[in-house]
Amino acid sequence: MRLVIRNKADTVADYVATYIKARITQFAPTAERPFVIGLPTGSSPIGVYKRLVQFCASGSLSFKHVVSFNMDEYVGLPRDHPESYHSFMWNHLFKHIDILPENVNILNGNAEDLEAECDKYEAKIKSYGGIELFLGGIGPDGHIAFNEPGSSLQSRTRVKTLAYETILANARFFGGDVTKVPMLALTVGVGTVMDAREVVVIITGANKAIALAKCIEEGVNHMWTVSAIQTHSRSLVVCDDDATLELHVKTVRYFKSIEQVQDEMIGRENLGLYGQVAGQLKYSSVSSGN
Ligand code: GLP
């Protein structure tokens, strides 16, 4: 797992958006081989979406061959409700970029048979050969998507009862009225997210500090479901300084020192997207101290 620390939410958004752009560009998607991305809602990804929209507007990025799968959706909220995740995604991202509407996948929280809807979603992800990159945010209780504490780390897309803490946290979007927040949601499972070939998680703000510490400094634990990323072979957490408040100083220094070695000793130009050393020759010269 890589941890990248930036000073504030804005620079976190810059990092993540630039990273996603580089991943899509390097993948060079086509209609036959689209880039399949998993996407979250919430305030954490808004800055990333703004930048992706700017990249598309300037012509440096295209979503024409990108297929998206959203993480979750409330149950029973009309699709065109301003707080539905459908509305969120179209307002913040999809209507501003060149993604094909038929390539957008969002769970239908008003489906007659919710279980069948979830099974269909899993099958559709499979039909694309899985998700290349799953972007996520987390709740203050360490949940990813709507996988509340105690969710199985093998869980798949399903109907989920929301934790009271999540209902409280999301009441801000419903005029502060907890009674207006739906109590059920459809969500991809922890297992669905972990099946992606890469998982990238944005964690910003002091209210996520305990969750970040639980997620990366303690063991894999279903009470902090995002901690499952410790077992993923390609995972990246990008956080701001505020979110590191509960980490050990040693942890922060450790991850910062890795970036320092990459910048000052190896050189960014010698690194691949995942932080791997790209050129064998240059690697030899570094390791032999030349
Ligand atoms: C909701 C969503 C999560 C999101 C979380 C955090 O619970 N289901 O996917 O990560 O909110 O939201 P925010 O980024 O606004 O803190």
Automatic annotation (TrEMBL):
Catalytic activity line of the entry: alpha-D-glucosamine 6-phosphate + H2O = beta-D-fructose 6-phosphate + NH4(+)
HAMAP family: GlcN6P_deamin
GO cellular component: cytosol
Coiled-coil features, chain-numbered ranges: 104-131
Source organism phylogeny: Eukaryota, Fungi, Fungi incertae sedis, Zoopagomycota, Kickxellomycotina
UniProt domain Glucosamine/galactosamine-6-phosphate isomerase: residue ranges: 8-234
Entry keyword annotation includes ATP-binding: no
Natural source organism: Coemansia biformis
Family, similarity comment: Belongs to the glucosamine/galactosamine-6-phosphate isomerase family.
GO MF: glucosamine-6-phosphate deaminase activity; identical protein binding; isomerase activity
This protein's record includes keyword Cell inner membrane: no
A single GO BP: carbohydrate metabolic process
EC number per UniProt: 3.5.99.6
Pfam families per the UniProt record, alphabetical: Glucosamine_iso (PF01182)
Keywords associated with the record: Carbohydrate metabolism, Coiled coil, Hydrolase, Isomerase
Gene3D superfamilies given in the database record: 3.40.50.1360
Protein name according to UniProt: Glucosamine-6-phosphate isomerase
Enzyme class: hydrolase
Role of this protein: Catalyzes the reversible conversion of alpha-D-glucosamine 6-phosphate (GlcN-6P) into beta-D-fructose 6-phosphate (Fru-6P) and ammonium ion, a regulatory reaction step in de novo uridine diphosphate-N-acetyl-alpha-D-glucosamine (UDP-GlcNAc) biosynthesis via hexosamine pathway.
